[in-house]
Write a structure and sequence with these properties.
The chain is of the alpha/beta class. It contains 7 helices and 10 strands. The strands form 2 sheets. The chain has a 6-stranded mixed beta sheet, sandwiched between helices. A hairpin with a 2-residue loop joins strand 9 and strand 10. Bound molecules: adenosine-5'-diphosphate and magnesium ion (MG). The site of magnesium ion (MG) has 2 residues, from helix 1.
């Protein structure tokens, strides 16, 4: 039996701005993401990596083309329903400013669950379990602002997983970290991919970090120039 893609982009083009000021950030990109993949998105600055993640993650709509989430065409879904779908199916980790500084670690982790309408008690139990997995359970009651960059990214990973998403999208997750913490965060993402079976797509312009991907998608000027086994 052939596996069905969890996310499919079909001829996706994203243009920012209008007329002579317009920028083609993605140019006719088609690709499929399958369950349990671990994918690095690489390419020079300005090549469309973040735009690709935003479109995949339903944070932004393509100008042209279609996006399918588990086979369902999301192009025609209303903004409100998109937000609900995104909350349930997709977890995000960004480069920085990930946490709400005045909230505690556990409050940050459960937030996407509260937004999805789940019960606090159930969420807190799940959050503790996730915080244990990312090795930061002892910080559960600390405020986000008081953590190191590496610790914040651990919390961000726990938060990304709170709703059991089908995919975690990470845009330069190690971009603000030193080499040692970067390795730890990538090892953790890899572990979550292996143990939890969650698909991970991450962006990095750092070749050492990009090596973690089993598949690599390379973008240049908004077009896919390589998509295959990461060598
Ligand atoms: N909100 C925006 N408005 C206008 N142009 C944008 C916007 N976001 C990105 N761009 C442009 O689109 C191109 C791709 O950007 P981006 O996806 O951020 O690339 P990368 O993440 O690979 O650095 C760049 O030329 C960038 O300047
Ligand atoms: Mg970017």
């Amino acid at each position: 039996m052939k596996k069905e893609p969890i996310i499919e982009l079909s001829h996706v083009t994203k243009i920012y701005g209008e007329y002579e000021k317009s920028v083609i950030a993605l140019n006719d990109v088609s690709l499929k993401i399958f369950p349990k993949e671990f994918i690095a998105v690489t390419g020079p600055s300005g090549s469309g990596k973040s735009t690709l993640l935003h479109c995949m993650g339903l944070l932004d709509r393509p100008t042209e083309g279609k996006i399918f989430i588990e086979g369902r065409d999301v192009s025609r879904i209303s903004g409100k329903d998109i937000a609900v779908l995104r909350g349930k199916k997709i977890g995000f980790v960004f480069q920085s400013h990930n946490l709400i500084p005045r909230l505690t670690v556990i409050e940050n982790v459960i937030l996407p669950g509260l937004i999805a309408g789940r019960k606090r008690v159930e969420l807190e139990k799940k959050a503790i379990e996730l915080l244990r997995e990312v090795g930061i359970e002892h910080r559960a009651k600390h405020r986000g602002a008081h953590l190191s960059g590496g610790e914040q990214q651990r919390v961000a990973i726990a938060r990304a997983l709170i709703n059991d998403p089908i995919i975690v999208l990470a845009d330069e997750p190690t971009g603000a970290l030193d080499t040692e913490s970067s390795k730890e965060i990538m090892d953790l993402l890899e572990e979550m991919n292996k143990n939890r079976g969650v698909t991970v797509v991450f962006v990095s312009h750092d070749p050492e970090i990009a090596r973690y991907g089993r598949r690599r998608i390379e973008l240049v000027d908004g077009s896919v120039t390589y998509d295959g086994v990461n060598r």
